[in-house]
UniProtKB/TrEMBL annotation:
Short motif ('KMSKS' region): ranges: 332-336
Domain Methionyl/Leucyl tRNA synthetase, first and last residues per copy: 4-396
The protein's name: Methionine--tRNA ligase
Domain Methionyl-tRNA synthetase anticodon-binding: 418-546
Cofactor binding note from Swiss-Prot or TrEMBL: Binds 1 zinc ion per subunit.
GO CC annotations on file: aminoacyl-tRNA synthetase multienzyme complex; cytosol
Gene3D superfamilies: HUPs, Isoleucyl-tRNA Synthetase, Domain 1, Methionyl-tRNA synthetase, Zn-domain
Localization, UniProt: Cytoplasm
Binding site for Zn(2+): C143, C146, C156, C159
PANTHER family named among the record's database cross-references: METHIONINE--TRNA LIGASE, METHIONINE--TRNA LIGASE, CYTOPLASMIC
HAMAP family cross-referenced by the UniProt entry: Met_tRNA_synth_type1
Length: 571
């Protein structure tokens, strides 16, 4: 079975923050790493890329009097390096909307669905000073709902209401501030309404799509789908390929969604197999998308409709895993107010694997979650260090001490009910984790993993091999054998979340490269007796008592340093 995994394409105007990371990128990486263990590396493709086009970057470039691509080249490389080399996100291809493969594919795709496209005139604001139409963020004004004086032409940042330029009170050009006039302009529209019935049938018949995604998508359909503009009077973007559309570009909502396909094509082109992408898009593959909840309509309604319109039989999404919002100490992330942690700041505060584990444990799967430092410290010190690290260290230390650092022999003839219970847990936990991961429930899956570690600790305490080694050595040796197998199981189960520390555990067990492991080996009790392990070492370290108190000063220093090195667009 082929498995396609994608994270929503981050807009390259800013450095992603922790909420952006857990909402799509990190969640998708955890699933992709799991899928490779479960289905084999060759059967999984994981892609995303930088969303570079759109009005915010074009406005910034106009103000600076430079080419927008000069801004996005640097920003893309900076964010890409953070994902691949710092956060160890295991993308097979992290592309960009400025990719030639992407631009070529988008033009071909849009021309292939022309029977669902029509032309219509619109009245749009026009700046006579800058000689340009003012779509979306090119225009600002007062929100008619809440009175916020710096609302954009597409949305009010204060009350969150969706807007259109003609609704704004006292509209002004976002570039020069002058009052616009309204002029007619021609645009091309995708008739989304033609797919209402097919979309409804697909969603209602899906056994895998999460209920929250179904609910939002079906609500959209019930309210009545309307045609959506495919073009904009912008210069920054992919030129619209229609006759008579000179000077217009393809609206970013349309072209960025197609990046999932173009990034897959680009990956296989680079690897010399230009047709293999079809196995993940034109066959019976499963596809998993990891997004924030504000992206549900685009992924569960608009994108499937686009795929249906093509008539090529593209694979529709299997699971769209949508998170709620992550807050930071009770507040929304805000760059201007310096509220939150950004992904280039985080690695200078705490180990990346610690971050990965904490964020997955705080993943807002059912409701908005609050990132609290007090809770993050508890998760690291109690779950990672005490529940997991302490259990593994105790197990390996006792094997070093009591069995000359070799995996003990196992005597099935003397097992007791506690042994039977732990054997059952080892064999059943991976399937429970797998079932939850397959539904996009990553946090819930890690609940089962931490339960296994805690049961391992309870098992050791109950069996007390440090005592029984003197009174009943065969029983003590059995306990250590099963504990070693549970350690192996934990390493595999935790690999998608904390890959570097899982490899450390595998190194201590002397078992080679964990990336070559198979998921189902985590439920097998199959370590070879006599296999030599390495000397036990602490795997995790507790965060110090002064960690939270020292954080403001630490963060201030980090931010001053980063202001010197971030690309200008991201400062």
């Amino acid at each position: 079975m082929k498995v396609f995994v994608a994270s929503a394409w981050p807009y390259v105007e800013t450095v992603p923050h922790l909420g952006n990371l857990i909402g799509s990128v990190l969640s998708a990486d955890v699933f992709a790493r799991y899928a490779r263990l479960k289905y084999g590396k060759e059967n999984v493709v994981f892609v995303s890329g930088s969303d570079e086009h759109g009005t915010p970057i074009e406005i910034e470039a106009i103000k600076r009097k430079i080419n927008p691509k000069n801004l996005t080249d640097q920003a893309h490389e900076y964010v890409k390096d953070l994902f691949l080399n710092v956060w160890k996100i295991s993308y097979d291809n992290y592309s960009r909307t400025e990719s030639e493969t992407h631009k070529k594919f988008v033009k071909e795709f849009i021309l292939g669905i022309q029977k669902y496209i029509f032309v219509q005139e619109e009245t749009m604001p026009y700046c006579e000073t800058d000689k340009i139409f003012l779509p979306d963020r090119f225009i600002k004004g007062t929100c008619p709902y809440c009175g916020f004086e710096d609302a954009r032409g597409d949305q009010c940042d204060k009350c969150g209401r969706l807007l259109s330029p003609e609704l704004l009170i006292n509209p002004r050009c976002a570039i020069c501030g002058s009052k616009p006039v309204f002029k007619k302009t021609k645009h091309w529209f995708f008739d989304l309404s033609k797919f209402s019935d097919d979309l409804r049938k697909w969603l209602e018949s899906s056994k895998d799509m999460p209920d929250n995604v179904k609910s939002v998508a079906l609500s959209w359909i019930s309210e009545g789908l309307k045609p959506r503009s495919l073009t904009r009077d912008n210069s920054w973007g992919i030129p619209a390929p229609f006759e008579g559309a000179e000077g217009k570009t393809i609206y970013v909502w349309f072209e960025a969604l197609l990046g999932y396909i173009s990034a897959t094509i680009e990956f296989f082109e680079k690897n010399g197999d230009s047709k293999k992408w079809e196995e993940f898009w034109l066959n019976d593959a499963r596809s998993y998308y990891f997004i924030g909840k504000d992206n549900i309509p685009f992924h569960a309604v608009i994108f499937p409709a686009m795929l249906m319109a093509s008539g090529k039989g593209y694979t529709l999404p299997t699971v769209i895993s949508s998170t709620e919002y992550l807050l930071y100490e009770g507040q929304k992330f805000s760059k201007s107010r310096r509220i939150g942690i950004w992904i280039d700041e985080a690695p200078k505060i705490m180990d990346i694997d610690y971050w990965r584990y904490v964020l997955i444990r705080l993943r807002p799967e059912e409701k908005d979650m609050n990132f609290l430092w007090k809770e993050a410290i508890r998760i690291v010190n109690t779950e990672l260090n005490d529940d997991i690290g302490n259990y593994i260290n105790r197990t390996l230390t006792m094997i070093n001490r009591y069995n000359s650092a070799k995996i003990p022999n196992f005597d099935e003839s003397i097992i007791d009910e506690n042994d039977v219970k732990i054997i059952k847990l080892i064999s059943e936990t991976p399937d429970m984790v797998s079932s939850l991961f397959e539904k996009g429930k990553l946090k819930a899956g890690t609940e089962e993993i931490i339960k296994l570690a805690r049961e391992g600790n309870s098992y050791l305490n109950l069996k007390a091999p440090w005592d029984s080694i003197k009174k009943n050595p065969r029983d003590a040796i059995n306990t250590l054998y099963l504990s070693a197998n549970l350690t192996k199981s934990l390493a595999i189960l935790l690999y998608p979340v904390i890959p570097e520390h899982s490899q450390i555990i595998y190194d201590l067990l002397n078992l080679g490269n964990i990336e070559n492991e198979m998921w189902d080996n985590s439920k097998k009790i199959n370590l070879q007796s006599g296999h030599e392990i390495k000397k036990a070492i602490p795997i995790f370290k507790k965060l110090p008592d002064t960690f939270e108190k020292d954080l403001p000063m630490t963060l201030e220093k980090i931010r001053k340093e980063l202001e010197k090195t971030r690309p200008s667009l991201l400062r």
